[in-house]
Specification:
The protein is of the alpha+beta class. It has two domains: 241 residues, Heme Oxygenase, Chain A; 160 residues, 2,3-Dihydroxybiphenyl 1,2-Dioxygenase, domain 1. Strands 4-5-6-3-9-12-11-10 form an eight-stranded mixed β-sheet. It has a two-stranded antiparallel sheet with strand order 1-2. β10 and β11 form a beta hairpin. The longest helix has 30 residues. It starts with 16 loop residues before the first helix and ends with a helix.
Length: 436
């Protein structure tokens, strides 16, 4: 399966309007030629191969409506936002669910006796990865709305229409399609290869042309980059479909994957498992003085404490301050700090991950025969803040720790309440556990 990563910039950082349109026109010309050659086999394909090809396109329609809605949500009020909102309404059937484009395409598939998706005929895994990658970039704050317009505006309306139009030209010449022409539900195709979709493409292009002059060079470059990434993704998307539909009858089926559910954030009371929280442990000369500075001056929130360390919620990240041992020369060095029956090296840094990613990283390190300072294990079993941990050093000797909390809400949990007056509760538990 072919997948793509964000492409390298298509030209230099200084992107002017004329060069952008010249590039867009050339890429679309190449796409027309490629699509013509790519879909030639459709004219003589068997019904089974046609079904395989046509079913796989259905998964793009599953993503496209949500992607356009996400793009609209990111845009500032204006003509572009209103235009894309009109496209979204059109995709949704103008208020009639039966006329929503995915429903129309399902009707087309049903009229060809294409079975509805089942666990055995789910989407090609490579294509789901492409769609997930595009959506991730679409909602990534690091990717500008201009990038999204290139990726799913031009890359959705304009490029998709090119492929569908060329596919349709070959599809209607297929003997199986010709024999069943009168019973086939063609509404989806009437909208996507006729004047309706062509008008959308021309309106979007004109709107970009009207507004692009008001964009700074960075926005124009982002628009172009989004369009380039979309072109690359579409090429891989259709190549994956054609490879699957044209492979030998006795060849194994390609890997499948379920269509992903859209998750914009964790449900109430739960954490998204995509935990990526920076963790840093540093030494300080005076633990309480440092606590006052980080909490009272910088606004951190105090978590669990021991005699020699304090956990801090540092604007969502995990900072731990450790009391530096006093030395004769009063110099700071790497040192060992006691923590729940273990000794950890300070300073160190790393990440708090979810359990799945932590386990995968542990296996990755083992597979590369890279040694651990402290191998993967679990601390504080059955206590608030139970977590898995592992230590290793980089080639320069910098110490790294990677953690995964059983319940991520307990990263900064305090063992005892303030009413106990025991700020060293973790030490007491460790001592009790050692004596047991």
């Amino acid at each position: 399966m072919k997948t793509v990563s964000p492409s390298q910039p298509c030209c230099s950082n200084q992107v002017d309007i004329d060069r952008f349109w010249a590039l867009a026109d050339e890429l679309q010309r190449q796409t027309v030629e490629r699509a013509q050659a790519m879909f030639a086999f459709v004219e003589t394909a068997s019904p089974q191969r046609l079904h395989s090809l046509l079913l796989q396109y259905r998964y793009f329609t599953s993503y496209y409506i949500t992607d356009i809605a996400l793009l609209v949500a990111r845009l500032q009020p204006g003509r572009m936002r209103s235009f894309l909102a009109d496209i979204l309404l059109d995709e949704l059937g103008g208020g009639d669910p039966a006329q929503a484009h995915p429903e129309l395409y399902d009707g087309f598939l049903a009229s060809l006796d294409v079975a509805q998706p089942s666990p055995q005929t789910m989407a090609l895994a490579g294509n789901i990865q492409l769609l997930d990658q595009a959506r991730a970039r679409l909602i990534d704050p690091a990717c500008s709305p201009a990038y999204g317009i290139g990726l799913r505006g031009m890359g959705g309306e304009c490029v998709c229409q090119i492929y569908l139009a060329r596919l349709y030209q070959h599809l209607i010449r297929n003997p199986y399609i010709q024999r069943n022409h009168d019973r086939i539900a063609w509404t989806f195709w009437d909208l996507h290869v006729g004047e309706h979709d062509i008008a959308h493409r021309e309106q979007l292009r004109k709107l970009i042309g009207d507004e692009i002059a008001g964009m700074d060079s960075g926005s124009v470059e982002a628009l172009q980059q989004g369009f380039c990434d979309s072109m690359a993704a579409w090429s891989s998307f259709w190549s994956n479909i054609l490879d699957e539909a044209s492979k030998a009858d006795d060849a194994p089926a390609g890997e499948r994957a379920a269509v992903a559910e859209l998750v914009l954030g964790p449900a109430a009371g739960h954490r998204d498992d995509a935990i990526h929280q920076f963790h840093l442990a540093i030494g300080v000369h005076d633990l309480q003085q440092a606590r006052r500075f980080y909490c009272e001056v910088l606004g951190a929130k105090q978590g669990r404490s021991t005699r020699n360390l304090i956990d801090l919620d540092f604007y969502g990240h995990h900072l731990v301050i450790h009391q530096t041992p006093q030395t004769g020369d009063d110099a700071d060095h790497s040192f060992g700090s006691a923590f729940y029956g273990e000794t950890v090296r300070v300073p160190h840094f790393g990440m708090n991950l979810n359990w799945r990613d932590w386990s995968g990283l542990a296996e990755r390190i083992k597979a590369r025969d890279y040694g651990f300072i402290d191998p993967p294990h679990v601390r504080m079993r059955e206590l608030p803040g139970e977590h898995a941990t592992m230590f290793l050093s980089d080639p320069s000797g910098n110490c790294l720790e990677f953690k995964a909390f059983r319940n991520h809400d307990e990263v900064f949990s305090v063992i005892f309440s303030d009413s106990t007056k025991d700020i060293f509760g973790l030490d007491a538990l460790a001592e009790k556990a050692a004596a047991a």
